[in-house]
Structures are given as structure tokens and as C-alpha cells.
Amino acid sequence: MANRRKYKLVSVGLVLALCVGLLAGCGGMGFLKKGKALESDRKKKVVLIAKSTESEFWKSVFSGANAASTEYNMDLMTIGPKNEEDYQTQNDMIEEAVADGADAIIFSAIDYEENADAINAAAQKGVKIIVIDSDVNSNRVECRIGTDNYEAGQMAGEAALAGEEDKIYVGVVNFDKVSENGQTREQGMTDTLKKDERATIVESVNARSTIDSAKSATLRMLEEHPEINVLVTFNEWTSLGVGYAIQELKAGDRIRVVAFDSNVISVDMLESGEVDALIVQNPYAMGYIGVESAYKVLNGYAITEKEIDTETQLVVKENMYSEACQRMLFTFEETR
């Protein structure tokens, strides 16, 4: 998702000011004409289907989406399966959303290929499709919103190379191979590590997107490859699993960890040294811009940016208390 416009969160006050100005300039968005209500008076129904509903990442997505749905007067439902491997439940949710009269679906794909037919079928029936976070193999998507995953992977690779070791032996704990964003992040990291002759990738594994699976994979990898001195992992659940493995082994002093996403636990791990760097995405913006884009599509406004890159920040112990990093580490409501 290279060369895309980057978005940063703005304050609620600024968002409201922009909306007021837009409404004034557009004559109230044309909701009333010659004293008669238009079809656009009806709240458009938008269903956001996430990869799961439990993580802090997705809770922040929902928070941004809810804020936008209030500002744009949209009827929003946020749903997702219990775990990030259950693409079939996502497909069922897509079908149910269509049957329930959804005007738009905001979607994050668990499986790039296996979710494609359900998304295409929904689009065939006139439902507008917006992708956030994780892409799906469909040409019926109106726009794609999320992290530049290749660039984020490069950022992880640079963090892995930031140590002073003469030799850098890297172990990679990724999540499901079928999820496009994780694979793209790993590719960005791999291409970056290839540029430094100190670095060797000892092993790369794909664990289930759960804490226990990632922890078990990490413990097994470190037992079999004691030379590993850097671990890289690519989402919230695997980051916690790797961090807990480092805690159990008391290996924070000899193994550097580059992880993704943030919650209270991973931030504590950054403070205490089990994690050395966090690549922090902007899920609030994904949710907000996703609903905003659905509004534009459903009301006939042109989508000039088909791929929108939300902000990503490298957070280490030295900068974690800066205002910019604090806004990324915690939800917008918690830091305003």
C-alpha cells in the first residue's frame, strides 16, 4: 500500500469544526430540498466485520468507528468472530449483513482468499465494501484503509538491526499465513535484514493468533536455537505470547524483542524490558476513516484516495513518554 496519503488523528474539536464547516458549505449536505425529505434522510446501515472483538486493537477500531457514525449519522453495527482464524464465521456474518439490508460493509479479512467469494457476492448485490487493516482478494472494494504493512515491516527490521551485536540471529513469530498483513510485514522485515550482513534469520514460524500458541512457539524455538538474540513478531496476540515467553525464561537481558501493537500489558513489558520496541498502528483512525469513507461512497461523494495509509509509530523505552507516543500507545479517549 505504498505512496498512500497518511492520516493522523485529530482532536474531536477539530473534527467537529471541520464537519460544521462542511455542512455549512454544502447547505446541510443536501438532506433537505424544497422542503421535502430526500432518501438520504434515512440512516444508512453500515456493518463493520472485524477479525475479532476481544483485543485492544479492535476495541480502538470500534471506538473510532462509533465516533464517526455519530458525526455522520450512520447506523453502525460492529461484529467479529471470537478468534482471528475463523474466516467461515466472517463469511456467515457477511451473508447475514446483506440479508439484513446493510448498505455498506467495512471489512478486515482473516483469509485473503477464503473471504473473497463472500465479499464479491455482497458487492454483486449492491453493498459497498470498504477494507480496513487486512486486505481481501477482491476488485469490488471501494477503498482500502490501514497500515502500510510493508513499510511497518521495514520499521521492524530496522529496530531489529538497532542493537550493537556483532551477529544478529533473528527468530520470527508470525501469525496465520493466510492473513495478508502479517505476511507483508514479514516481507518488509526480511528485505530490510538482507541489507545488513550481521543479520541471519534463524527460523520463522506461523503460530495461531493467540497468546498461548505464540508463547509455545517461542519457547520451542529458543530451546532449539539458543543462539537467537532478537525476536520479531507481528500482532497484538503474538506480541504478548513472545513477551510472556521472555518473562518465563528471564531472557530480557540477552534477547531483544521487536513487537507490534499496544495494550496495558505490552506497554508494561516495554517499561520492564521484556519488549524493546513496539510498532504501534493507528486502529482508531482505521475505524473512523472506514465509516467516513462508507458515508462518502453511500452519499455519492468521490473517493479520491483508493488506498489510505494510517500512521505507524516506532516506540522504544527512550521515547515512550513523549506526547506523540502516548497518543499512539493508548486510545484517543484515554489520552485526550
From TrEMBL:
Keywords per UniProt: Signal
Protein location: Cell envelope
Domain annotation Periplasmic binding protein: ranges: 46-300
Recorded coiled-coil stretches: none
Primary subcellular site in the record, as a coarse category: other
CC per GO annotation: cell envelope
Entries under InterPro entries matching the protein: Peripla_BP_I (IPR028082), SBP_2_dom (IPR025997)
SUPFAM superfamilies: Periplasmic binding protein-like I (SSF53822)
One MF annotation (Gene Ontology) recorded for this entry: carbohydrate binding
PANTHER family according to UniProt: D-ALLOSE-BINDING PERIPLASMIC PROTEIN-RELATED
Protein family: Belongs to the bacterial solute-binding protein 2 family.
Protein name in the entry: Substrate-binding domain-containing protein
Organism of this sequence: Dorea phocaeensis
